[in-house]
Design brief:
The protein has about 200 residues and is α/β, with parallel strands linked by helices. The protein contains eight helices and six strands.
């Protein structure tokens, strides 16, 4: 079985995430992609939506695609979980699987600063998606040599933009799956407090 881990804050999950995952699934004949919302991200600010809200949004977004599965493992740890721990956990859980890890070129650029750094690239195959803010040419050659590139359409949708639009009552249709949009509208958790 070919299994890919796709971690992120998913605050909220959007069409860009799904496009990337589908492109990786098709290109590398992946059997399953595990979407893994982070509990307390080591490198980012605290998410706006709660862990349980982000989990619900991911589950709603993945409905209807048997190859896409949501895992709450990182959230259940109730602490900052580092990538090396996540990879080790899923290697133990699926010892026979060929393990892949999907990330953006912006995250790849930071890998040397992560716990266990570039050693992670030997733990499983890294599948890298181009991000506008981190062009491929700006990534160190040793990093580029160890990874595979995902040929995915460059999607300009970003979680922070969606949060801002939702917070001011603007449409987020076609940026997030309909079920996610309905959940965000009903929950108002990106709403800015009125002064």
């Amino acid at each position: 079985m070919k299994l890919a881990i796709f971690g992120g804050t998913f605050d909220p999950i959007h069409m860009g995430h799904l496009l990337v995952a589908e492109a990786a699934r098709e290109q590398f004949q992946l059997d399953r992609i595990l979407f893994l919302p982070t509990g307390l991200p080591p490198h980012k600010k605290t998410p706006v939506a709660s862990s349980s809200q982000r989990l619900i949004m991911v589950r709603k977004a993945l409905r209807g695609n048997p190859a896409f599965v949501c895992s709450d493992w990182e959230i259940r740890q109730r602490r900052t979980v580092y990538t090396f721990e996540t990879i080790a956990h899923f290697k133990t859980l699926y010892p026979k699987a060929a393990l892949f890890f999907i990330l953006g070129s912006d995250a790849l650029r930071d890998v040397p600063t992560w716990r266990q750094g570039t050693g992670l690239l030997r733990q499983c195959r890294f599948l890298v998606v181009d991000r506008k803010e981190a062009p491929w040419s700006t990534i160190a050659r040793p990093l580029r040599r160890h990874v595979l590139r995902v040929q995915a359409p460059l999607c300009e949708v970003a979680s922070h933009t969606i949060r801002a639009r939702a917070g001011t009552g603007h449409s987020i249709r076609y940026q997030v799956p309909d079920a996610v949009g309905a959940y965000i509208r009903a929950g108002h958790f990106y709403q800015r407090p009125h002064h």
